[in-house]
Write a structure and sequence with these properties.
Blueprint lengths: L5 E4 L4 H9 L5 E2 L14 H14 L7 E12 L2 E3 L5 H11 L3 E12 L2 E13 L4 H10 L19 E5 L2 H5 L3 H10 L4 H4 L5
Parallel strand pairs: 1-2, 1-3
Antiparallel strand pairs: 3-4, 3-5, 5-6, 6-7
Length: 198
């Protein structure tokens, strides 16, 4: 059988960690530190794929290590909404999303040795009309900070979401079905590594 694969999550996101842990996957966390500045004219889909590939590339790893990297952004009419920088920025984003449908894109890259596979999963999310009472309440929870688009589907932000079309785990930050497909191209499956012994 040989030694078990070492799984590395190249992200400090608690949401991504939670999704993998719920499957019983044992992994280590080694966040990638890269420049996430958009390139001139770069569209949101190309942006998240590029960042995921770059995050996977910067970590050390041989054929016995599988690196999982991801980047998620919110896309409103082709405009990227990253993480809010402060309270006023969070309010601006939430007002922009209010009563509208937007896209959430997650770029994923998996690397095993020199082999890299990548993909982007997109989900459509429709928000309710967010009045001032709900806006004040949600920003006061502190949840918008550190989240692309200033909301978290898996948390209190679910109150603001009317409908989700597509992968729910994608909106949280790691589309698991797409991840499993990419791992399969490297000879790995989430089912095979879930619950394995140390």
């Amino acid at each position: 059988m040989g030694d078990p694969l070492r799984i590395v999550l190249a992200s400090a996101s608690p949401r991504r960690s939670d999704l993998l842990a719920q499957l019983g996957v044992r992994f280590t966390i080694e966040p990638s530190d890269i420049d996430e500045t958009e390139l001139p004219g770069e569209d949101p889909v190309a942006y998240v794929r590029r960042l995921a590939v770059e995050k996977a590339a910067v970590l050390e790893g041989d054929d016995g290590t599988v690196v999982i990297a991801a980047d998620t952004t919110v896309d409103v009419d082709g405009v990227i909404l990253a993480k809010p920088v402060d309270t006023s920025d969070a309010r601006r984003m939430l007002r922009l999303l209010s009563g509208r449908t937007h896209a959430v894109h997650t770029g994923i890259a998996v690397r095993r040795g020199h082999l890299v596979e990548s993909a982007v999963t997109s989900t459509r999310v429709t928000m309710v009309e967010i009045d001032d009472v709900h806006l004040d309440w949600y920003v006061a929870t502190g949840e918008p900070f550190g989240k692309a688009g200033a909301y978290a589907l898996q948390g209190a932000g679910s109150l603001l979401v009317e409908r989700v079309e597509g992968s729910v785990s994608n909106v949280i930050g790691l589309p698991l079905a797409a991840l499993d497909e990419l791992l399969g191209r490297l000879g790995v499956s989430l089912a095979a590594i879930a619950g394995r012994p140390d």
